[in-house]
Design brief:
With 343 residues, the chain is of the alpha+beta class. The protein has five helices and 14 strands.
């Protein structure tokens, strides 16, 4: 059964107008609020203008990796991180007992080859045969050393530590040592068989081959003391004193004093940026506004596209890398500092 309202009829008539008036006030307040918000939105669209896009870049500079071809132990480091150096300044000293032993061995081979060359005219004597045998043994030792070096370089190459060129240099040295061993063996066989015209030519060739071995080791030992290739600042020193370093391993990073600014610019902003022309920039860290000349513009590829926000009526904008160099040196301008393009 439906519930009956037992209130008097007069009271029911009095409550109905009160509820209706409250609802009307609430609806009116909501409408007024919506009208005010709509008016503010329209005013914002009319009077608020979007400012220009901010193109922000940063300072960059050339970094040179200092490395050498001599594997060995770091004996001394003559510079510190943050220090400015001039081209030719000594940076680091590397000692290699193996390379020095190879040099002594190569010099001994020269002496043996020279002695054999001088005695070959006297005929086959016991001393000549012994000298040729010594030369052969020296060549065998050299071949063994270069074989070990090549095996190590091959392993480092397979692990991705050194470049293919370094591996090939070690292979060439090993091949040269094997060839020297064969030549020494031939010389020994000739000494046993007796000196002839061919023997004299072979002895002279062995002298030249031995001298070539000395030259090769000298070229490696030139990197005992590494010097600065250019003026700049030492930014990173990788090894510490007493640590072992491999062939071609980076030892230091040297930053050249050739600062520039690099920007990633959307293609629709390139209309005011031309190759070879000047642009105005601001460096917030230095509170400086200056002029730079654009010397490089390159497309960064599809991976750097600015994707369109609309499904129709818009397009994906490509990104270009722009580099500009200061018209004159800027004091305290350092890599990493922000650079703002003034439009």
């Amino acid at each position: 059964m439906a519930e009956q309202n037992n209130a008097p009829a007069g009271q029911q008539d009095a409550l109905a107008p009160q509820v209706s008036a409250k609802d009307k006030s609430l609806i009116l307040a909501i409408l007024v609020t919506l009208l005010i918000m709509a008016a503010l939105a329209v005013a914002g669209l009319i009077f608020v203008k979007q400012g220009p896009d901010t193109v922000q870049g940063q300072c960059d500079a050339t970094e040179v990796r200092v490395s050498g071809k001599l594997p060995g132990r770091v004996v001394n480091i003559f510079v510190q991180e943050g220090q400015y150096v001039k081209a030719g300044d000594t940076l680091i000293h590397i000692h290699s007992s193996l390379a020095e032993a190879k040099l002594a061995q190569a010099q001994a081979m020269v002496e043996v080859a020279s002695a054999t060359n001088q005695k070959v005219d006297a005929g086959t004597r016991r001393q000549i045969i012994a000298g040729a045998r010594d030369l052969w043994e020296q060549a065998q030792a050299a071949s063994g050393i270069t074989k070990k070096t090549y095996d190590r370089m091959q392993k480092l190459f397979e692990e991705g530590v050194i470049s293919e060129q370094k591996r090939d240099e070690a292979k060439a040295a090993y091949d040269a040592a094997v060839a020297g061993e064969k030549a020494a063996k031939s010389q020994y066989d000739l000494a046993v068989a007796g000196a002839q015209k061919e023997d004299k030519e072979a002895a002279a060739a062995m002298v030249q081959a031995a001298k070539g071995g000395v030259t090769e080791v000298d070229a490696v030992l030139e990197d005992q003391y590494l010097t600065a290739p250019c003026d700049g600042q030492i930014t990173v020193i990788y090894p510490n004193v007493s640590e072992l370093v491999a062939t071609g391993a980076p030892l230091m990073s040297l930053q050249k004093d050739d600062h520039w600014a690099v920007f990633n610019v959307r293609e629709n902003l390139l209309k005011d940026i031309k190759l070879g022309e000047d642009i105005k920039v601001r460096i917030p860290a230095l509170d400086v506004e200056t002029t730079m000349r654009v010397f490089y513009i390159r497309d960064l590829g599809t991976y750097a596209n600015w994707q369109a926000t609309k499904s129709t009526g818009d397009y994906d904008a490509r990104t270009f890398e722009v580099k500009a160099r200061p018209a004159k040196p800027i004091k305290d301008f350092r890599p990493g500092m922000s650079v703002i393009l003034v439009q």
